[in-house]
Amino acid sequence: xxxxxxxKSRFKLEAEIQAPGAAPxxxxxxxxxxxxxxxxxxxxxxxxxxxxxxxxKIPFDGExxxxxxxxxxxxxxxxxxxxxxxxxxxxxxxxxxxxVDPGEGTLGGICFDGNDLWLAVTGTGQLRRIRPSDGAIxxxxxxxxxxxxxxxxxRRIWYTDADNNKVRLLDPGTGTELMSYExxxxxxxxxxxxxxxxxxxxxxxxxxxxxxxxxxx
Length: 217
What we know:
Layout: E1 6-7, E2 11-18, E3 24-29, E4 34-38, E5 43-47, E6 54-59, E7 64-69, E8 74-78, E9 83-87, E10 94-99, E11 106-112, E12 117-122, E13 126-130, E14 137-142, E15 147-152, E16 157-161, E17 166-170, E18 177-182, E19 187-192, E20 197-202, E21 207-213
Parallel strand pairs: 1-18
Antiparallel strand pairs: 2-21, 3-4, 4-5, 5-6, 7-8, 8-9, 9-10, 11-12, 12-13, 13-14, 15-16, 16-17, 17-18, 19-20, 20-21
């Protein structure tokens, strides 16, 4: 892993809403709504991003970690059963449950790149590319041990580093760290709305923040 020089945040705070629970973790963007999982409530919430209003609550019996959106379904990481579950967003029904072995680590964030899932293994510093049809590991990149949330901006992978209050940018092909930036609070989940803006959840304040990138990329 090539270590990039940390920089102060180049992101502008666009909006801030209150998370619906005390332990926000996974975060996903469906194109219109935010999906946020909360381990204290053992639930996945569908939120209006304008005001944070809860539009739907899906109970989830497990130890909640990352959340992803694949265009039609939610993917939810569960550390208790060591699975990644695909969930129907209308009914809450689980139709796929992929078994995952984190080794000595714990399962963290997850995102979808249009074809495959990317999964964080916290504690062992792994970023895994996973085939969603059967859970096969296609690639592993070494990253910071305290990797938490993962987001995909349409080209590259970003992940949150809660211990250092940073978001880090990676080349998904090589795993090279390109740069890192400071974020307010203790970032957990991260979800991109295209290339230039994202949401992240802050476990320290219980806020979910909408950030817009400034300056040249």
